Amino acid sequence: MNPIRILIVEDEQLVADDLRETLEYLGYIVCDLVASGEEAIFKAEQLQPDLVLMDIRLEGEIDGIEASFEIQSRFHLPVVYLTANADRVTLERAKASHPFGYILKPFDERILGTTIEIAISRHQAEIEVKKALFAAKNNQEIAESQNQKTSQNLYITVHEFRNPLTTIKLSAEMLKAYGDQMSEQRKQNHINRIESATDSLNNLLENILTLGRSESQNLVFNPKPIDIVTFCEEIVESLQISVKEQYKINFSVDGNSRIACLDEQLMWHLLNNLLANAIKYSPVGSKVFLKLIWAENSLCFQVTDEGIGIPPESQSHLFEPFQRATNVGSIPGTGLGLAIVKRSTELHGGTIYFDSALGKGTTFTVKLPWKLDTLPV
Predict the structure, then answer these.
(1) Helix or strand (DSSP H, E) at 226
(2) Are 310 and 282 a contacting pair, CB within 8 Å?
(3) Distance between CA atoms of 50 and 120, rounded to whole angstroms?
(4) Residue 290's domain spans which residues?
């Protein structure tokens, strides 16, 4: 432990010298010796001693009590009074400044040492209490912020469940009430809406469960050889059926290989979310592109759309759960898809990045190792 450094504030030179000798004998360091309240404030700021030993009647325009108020409020240093004044008025003024000790002259060496030690100990305890209170307040604010964020996320999720459930309910009620009066085409339209809404619910539930497993470290990485070309074709075909003629999904391959060692379930989440987002944020009648690019030790998946693009202010938080771009407007979504894509990419030991221009579209590129000996352990 470093020796305690003490600033002496005493206008009687003989007393000051005696104090210095006594304190140094007791093992303390006297960092300076001043005679006025103004000097005491200046030196306290400059030297930052561990304790100020303060007389009350001093040279200058302010006395020791006024100087003590200033030193404690500005620099949070403990002050111990060493004075010949014991009258009631002076004592009351001194008490109001909350000193860490009050010693009457002539001082006793043992009382002086004991008072200093207690003052230092009390000051350190107060610092620790303040730190604990600050930490508790900070933790409370963090907890409140997390609770608020959780509530907002829950609201978003509930809202996304409500939309397809409302569609299912309304279509079912229409079929029940007017089914015998409807044409076959209108019946089929309602059935199609129910099927589409059911698919949306299933996808939302799957995303929530996948993200939950990811955050609890229970999302398993299980790579095995798969025909990734056929795999991509099946995903594209399934999505093309669901969007009908509203969008055109183009799939192309650069390279002659077909078999890659990847996790099939994670790859489904990865590609399905990227393609679904590309469709969701693109105008009707536009095209979405999936390109598979083979390299010696890596496999690139590029998903390109002709959609609304991602504003610069939204890009840094894009892969965080429940975060959505500021320009999505009324387009439904939870912000879970890209968080799952990012996690699926990381489990493969891969990387993901994107390039986007507002009003022109976005390209997401996922680069994954595809050989067994290059996969993460």
Answers:
(1) strand 224-227
(2) no
(3) 7
(4) 224-374
Identify the helix (H) or strand (E) that includes residue 365.
Answer: strand 361-369
Q: Are residues 358 and 233 in the same domain?
A: yes
Token pair of 333 as six digits: 């979504």
Pair (101, 237) in one structural domain: no
302 & 275 share domain: yes
Going by C-alpha positions, the residue among 88, 58, 246, 259 that lies closest to residue 79 is 58
The pLDDT tens digits of the residues spanning 77-105 come to: 999 999 888 788 888 898 898 999 999 88
Task: Give every CB contact of residue 115 below 8 A, 6+ residues apart in sequence.
Answer: 80, 101, 103
Chain centroid, CA 20 distance in Å: 52
Place of tokens 């025909």: 227
Whether 15 maps to a domain, the answer reads yes
251 occurs within a structural domain: yes
Tell me: pLDDT of 239 over 70: yes
Q: Which of these, 370, 113, 345, 92, lies nearest to 229 by C-alpha position?
A: 370
Domain boundary among 215, 237, 268: 215
| 30, 23 contact by CB (below 8 A) | yes
CATH code of the domain covering residue 266: 3.30.565.10
Q: What is the predicted pLDDT for the residue at 376? A: 59
102, 192: one domain:
no
| 351 strand-pairing partners | 367
CA distance readout (Å), 196 to 159, 190, 247, 284: 17, 10, 16, 17
Q: Pairing between strand 287-294 and 298-304?
A: antiparallel
Indicate yes or no: pTM above 0.85. Answer: no
In a domain, 133, yes or no: no
- Residue length, the chain? 377
pLDDT in tens, 39-71: 999 999 999 999 999 999 988 899 999 999 999
Q: Is the dihedral of CA 186, 189, 195, 197 positive or negative?
A: negative
> Residues with Cβ < 8 Å from 175, sequence gap 6 or more?
182, 187, 190, 191
Strands (DSSP E) found in 84-199: 101-104
Enter the DSSP assignment of 59: B
